[in-house]
Amino acid sequence: MREYSAAAKKFYNSKAWRKTRDAYIGSIDYMCERCGDAGYIVHHIEHIDNNNINDVNVTLNWDNLEYLCLDCHNTEHFATHSNVVEGVSFNQYGELVPISKTKNDK
C-alpha cells in the first residue's frame, strides 16, 4: 500500500473531490476520454503524492483530470511502472487489488 494512502482516502472521500469528480464526469458525457468506452475513474494526470495531496491545483484542477475506462486507467499505470503483476488492478483509491474472476473464467 502507498505511504500516503490514509491521506488519499481522506481526499477521495472529501466533499470537494466528490463534487469536482461528479461535475467533471458530467462535462465529458461519462465516456472514457481515450477510447470512448464507458468511463470508470477520474485519473489525475499529475499523480497525487504526499507532496501535492493538499494542492488544489493538482487534486481539483480540471486541467489535471482525465476520465478513463478501467482498461485505459490500468494501461496508464502499468505502462509507467516496470513491475507489472498479473491478476491485479487499481481500485478507485489507486491501490492494487486482486481482479475478481467471473463464473465464466473459472
From TrEMBL:
<keyword id="KW-0378">Hydrolase</keyword>
<keyword id="KW-0540">Nuclease</keyword>
<dbReference type="GO" id="GO:0004519">
    <property type="term" value="F:endonuclease activity"/>
</dbReference>
<protein>
    <recommendedName>
        <fullName>Putative HNH nuclease YajD</fullName>
    </recommendedName>
</protein>
<feature type="domain" description="HNH">
    <location>
        <begin position="32"/>
        <end position="77"/>
    </location>
</feature>
<keyword id="KW-0255">Endonuclease</keyword>
<dbReference type="InterPro" id="IPR002711">
    <property type="entry name" value="HNH"/>
</dbReference>
<comment type="similarity">
    <text>Belongs to the HNH nuclease family.</text>
</comment>
<dbReference type="GO" id="GO:0008270">
    <property type="term" value="F:zinc ion binding"/>
</dbReference>
<dbReference type="GO" id="GO:0016787">
    <property type="term" value="F:hydrolase activity"/>
</dbReference>
<dbReference type="Pfam" id="PF01844">
    <property type="entry name" value="HNH"/>
</dbReference>
<dbReference type="InterPro" id="IPR003615">
    <property type="entry name" value="HNH_nuc"/>
</dbReference>
<dbReference type="GO" id="GO:0005829">
    <property type="term" value="C:cytosol"/>
</dbReference>
<dbReference type="GO" id="GO:0003676">
    <property type="term" value="F:nucleic acid binding"/>
</dbReference>
